[in-house]
Amino acid sequence: MVTVTPLKIEDYGLIGDGRSCALVGRNGSIDWLCWPRFDSPACFAALLGDGENGHWQLAPDEERGGTPVTVTRSYRNHGMVLETVFETHTGVVAVLDFMAIGAAEPTLIRIVEGRRGAVPILNWLVLRFDYGLSVPWVTRLPDNMGISAIAGPSRCVLRCPVALHGEDRHTVSRFIVSEGDQVPFVLTYMDSHGALSQPVDARAALHRTEQFWSDWIGRCTYQGEHASIVRRSLLTLKALIYQPTGGIVAAPTTSLPEELGGGRNWDYRYCWLRDASLTLIAIMAGGYFEEAMAWRDWLQAAVAGSPDQVQIMYGIAGERLLNEWEAGWLAGYEGSKPVRVGNAAAGQLQLDVYGEAIAALHVARQTRLCAITDGWRLQVGLLQHLATIWKEPDEGMWEVRGGRRQFTVSKISCWLAFDRAIRDVEKYGLEAPLEEWKALRQDIHDTVCREGFNADKNSFVQYFGGTGLDAGLLLIPVVGFLPADDPRVSGTIAAIERELLDEHGFVRRYLPDHVIEGVAGDEGAFIACSFWLVNAYVAQGRMEEAHALFNRLLALCSDLGLLAEEYDAITGRQVGNFPQAFSHLSLINSASILSAGRITTMGAAPLPVL
After folding, report:
1. pLDDT at 482
2. Residue 571 confidence (pLDDT)
3. Taking every annotated instance into account, which residue ranges of this chain make up the domain Trehalase-like N-terminal (predicted)?
């Protein structure tokens, strides 16, 4: 009997195929996989419970003398094929893990290679559909070269050359791998009512997958500092893009906690408009205009329709109904409950999304991702609606659940929406009520400076009339709301340094206020916000401090170059959903800013930065 306990978040590696992703532990266990899409129910959910909720262990058999002495891992050829090398007292084996590119059906392949000596291997497969709830009916394939597991509409088929047998509703094999041996395991997802698909040639799939990722990253044009980690972040973003639509998930996981053992656990397998501008810019920073265009097209399709129905997030194909519920049978990562599926924040009012959407489409127009007039009527409709609601309170960019307030960053984002639209009208001669928009832009600016600034603190604050801070205020000089040398901006950055930095100098989003947030508990430092402070330092000309903070942030990356949402300074661990697109987007943008040695207000040529 194999007992699986979820590893530290940073001990997982990511593999993907443009439809979904899997998390592979350094112990050889795949503990998370949703099939056939990012947002589908998981068939391996041990990450949020235990081994009986589904996992796939393929590693040296410790019960037969295969205890690893060392474990090292890396991505082969700088792509997305994960290689984990286990050295034991009797030899060395490697496990190659990847999701096959170009396969007719979603396919996960694991190849065990003998590198030296002879090593006993354990294959322990526990398939559990519906987030670990449903135990499938398992039968042998007609050719006796694998098994088929069916539950409801889902079927997984495992094909391999070694004998399989059942042990207490687990599929098991034990075998020896010697130097030169290659033993492939091919797991394919398909509809339960369909015919069995043809077997996939593992070696051919490995070659095709490695070639795909090699070709893709080979097109990267980024030549600045920290090129290696920037390329890894670009690869991570590529793996988080749902290829059929171009939408990018915030993370491939749900309910990895912001506080270990706490209840701040959210489903991030959806597409946030908040990521729009950063996504466009980060991908274009690497020269990937095709992906940027696909994301822009997804964005425009997602927000199409009645302007008063714009949401802060959508499904990967633009779905709007993201009802939130709890999987009560899962114990949660390290006891962090509840485990949530869906995200009720989709129904919130967050005024900042208007600014982010308009800014993203402005960037697309400026960089010629689309025709100048493409989507303009849609944007005018959004702005006309925003003109009627910008004074309303909202839930803010951090999606608080304690009720609506007049969040300062939300108002600044409203200003951003009108500012970028005005720039497009003036530059391209687009039809719009220009003078009305200019008056609105000035009105919003005056309101923020009057209501959102606290003279006693010499700082902008989280919401009008409050005294707390918000790391989102670091974006003020970046979006061009005020210049970096404005005393109010300098005061805000200084206040954030005083109040929001943890003991390692990383930035918290805000100080916990359970009344405002509507949820108990604490959280770690927010990695993206810490990169925003890097950018703010550059804007102030504090280059030495900017480089120092950036390097400290890079040290948080896992050995595979991956980042979660947050960092817990007390435990020294990554926390939150993983890997987090927002963290990697911010890394790329900060690296670009540091390489340029200056910050360019978003919306200025040649390549804007947020």
Report:
1. 96
2. 93
3. 7-134
* CA triple 27-31-33, angle to 5 deg: 135
CB atoms inside a 10 Å sphere around CB 560: 19
Q: What is the pLDDT of residue 465?
A: 94
What pLDDT score does 609 carry?
Answer: 38
Q: What does the pLDDT read at residue 372?
A: 87
Is the separation of the CB atoms in 451 and 464 below 8 Å?
yes
The DSSP symbol for 73 reads E
Query: What are the structure tokens assigned to 127, written together?
Result: 């398939």
Q: For residue 610, tell me if it sits in a domain.
A: no
pLDDT of residue 257: 96
β-bridge pairing 573-575 and 459-460: unpaired
- Tokens standing for residue 270: 């959806």
Angle subtended at Cα 123 by Cα 120 and Cα 124, rounded to the nearest 5 degrees? 135
Closest CA to 17 of 105, 93, 133: 105
How crowded is the C-beta side of 67, counted as CA atoms within 13 Å? 3
Measure Cα distances from 22 to 152, 380, 507 in Å: 22, 40, 29
pLDDT given at position 596: 86
> How far are the Cα atoms of 33, 200, 394, 471, 490 from residue 448, in angstroms, in the given order?
45, 59, 15, 16, 16
pLDDT the model gives residue 514: 66
Inside any domain, residue 501: yes
DSSP one-letter string for 588-608: HHHHHHHHHTS---TT-SS--
The residue assigned the tokens 């994301």 is 295
**Which residues, in sequence order, are bridge partners of residue 526?**
566
Inter-residue contact 263 to 278 (CB < 8 Å): no
Write out the two tokens for 434. Answer: 């220009």
> What's 551's domain CATH number?
1.50.10.10
Strand runs (DSSP E) across 70-133, as ranges? Answer: 70-75, 82-87, 91-99, 107-126
Contacts of 50 (CB under 8 A, 6+ apart): 3, 4, 5, 6, 331
Closest by Cα among 23, 3, 44 to 330: 44
Characterize 55-93 residue by residue with b for buried, 16 or more Cβ atoms within 10 angstroms of its Cβ, and e for exposed: bbbbbbbeeeebebeebebebbeebbbbbbbbbbebbbb
In angstroms, rounded to a whole number, what is the distance separating the alpha carbons of residues 586 and 527? 8
Domain match, 272 and 159 both: no
For CA atoms 17, 281, 312, 567, the dihedral sign is positive
What is the pLDDT at residue 607?
37
Element (H, E) at 23: strand 21-25
Q: What pLDDT does 603 receive?
A: 36
What's the pLDDT at 421? 96
Same domain, 581 and 501: yes
CATH code, domain carrying 44: 2.70.98.10
The pLDDT value given to residue 194: 84
**Domain tally for the chain?**
2
Gap between the Cα atoms of 607 and 601, Å rounded: 10
Three state DSSP letters for 339-356: CEECCHHHHCCCCHHHHH
pTM of the full predicted structure?
Answer: 0.95
Residue 605 confidence (pLDDT): 30
In this prediction, the residues of the chain whose per-residue pLDDT falls under 70 are: 1, 276, 514-515, 518, 600-610
